Amino acid sequence: MDNYINLIKLSVGTETVEDLAVWQATKRAQAPDGLPRHVTRMWPKREGEILNGGSIFWVIKGVLTCRQRILRLDEYIGQDGIRRCAIVSDSELVRVQSALKRPFQGWRYLKPQDAPPDLPKGRASEEPLPVELNRALAEIGVL
After folding, report:
1. φ/ψ of residue 10, rounded to 5
2. Could you tell me if 50 and 57 are in contact, meaning their C-beta atoms sit under 8 angstroms apart?
3. What is the pLDDT of residues 26-44, one digit of tens each?
4. Angle 21-95-54 (CA atoms, 0-180°, nearest 5)?
5. How far, in Å, are 76, 87, 96 from residue 71 at the CA level?
6. What DSSP assignment string belongs to 46-103?
7. 69, pLDDT greater than 60
8. Are strands 37-40 and 63-77 parallel, antiparallel or unpaired?
9. β-pairing, 6-10 with 55-60?
10. Whole-angstrom Cα distance, residue 122 to residue 100?
11. CA distance 71 to 105
């Protein structure tokens, strides 16, 4: 049994993995050390499991497309004085086998056995299956 847990999050406002990389390269999306971070209101209760090898999996336009290894959770206090959690990740975006995901708010836990596998390095630039085909395969349980 795995002793880590992943997070899954919608990447709102991005169209592609490349868009996510461009956003994460901006100062606004970075921790003080230059690593990408995503600030969220809720602090994960399963912090120890996340930091034991978990990744954040990104859903872009309804399709789970990539992941980043989570390095740490930083406290972030906004201008409004509210304590938030900054999920700081490795800068490498690892493409994964695409999977359709319905919209949801915030983030969710994703068990390792439910996470899609990484694509081989050589396939990182391949086009994903068309959404209609991917959806049809998912509906019949192939993906």
Report:
1. -75, 135
2. no
3. 999 999 999 999 999 999 9
4. 90
5. 15, 8, 19
6. THHHHTTT-EEEEEETTEEEEEEEEEEEEEEE-TT--EEEEEEE-S--EEEEEEE---
7. yes
8. unpaired
9. parallel
10. 22
11. 23
Written as one letter, the residue type at 130 is: P
Predicted TM-score (pTM) of the model is 0.84
Could you give the CA distance from residue 30 to residue 133 in angstroms, rounded to a whole number? 36
pLDDT at 125 over 50: no
- CA–CA distance, 143 with 140 (Å, rounded to integer): 8
Angle value at C-alpha 39, between 117 and 125, nearest 5 degrees: 35
With tokens 């900054």, the residue in question is 86
Tokens (6 digits) for 5: 């847990």
Assess contact for 68 and 36: CB atoms under 8 A. Answer: yes
d(C-alpha 86, C-alpha 98), whole Å: 26
* Burial zone of 12 (CB within 10 Å; 0-12 exposed, 13-18 middle, 19+ buried): exposed
Looking at residue 135, what is its pLDDT?
66
Q: How far apart are CA 71 and CA 125, in angstroms?
A: 25
